[in-house]
Amino acid sequence: MSSGVPSVDPDVVPLTEPADGVGPVVSTPAGLARVVDAFAAGSGPVAADAERASGYRYGQATYLVQVRRADAGTALIDPVGLPDLSGLAAAVGDVEWVLHAASQDLPGFGEHGLRPARVFDTELAARLLGMPRVGLAAVVADTLGLGLAKEHSAVDWSTRPLPEDWLRYAALDVEVLVEVRDVLAARLDEAGKTEWAAQEFEHVRTLPPPAPQVDPWRRTSGTHTVRDRRRLAVVRSLWEARDDAARRRDVSPGRVLADRAIIAAANALPRTVPQLVALPEFASKGARRRAPAWQRAIDEALALPESALPSLRGPRSDGPPPPRAWADRDPVAARRLDLARDVVTRLTEELSVPAENLLQPDALRRLCWAPPEPATAAAVGDFLLERQARPWQVGLLAGPLADAFADA
Question: Which portions of the chain have biased composition (kind: Low complexity) (predicted)?
Answer without folding.
Answer: 1-14
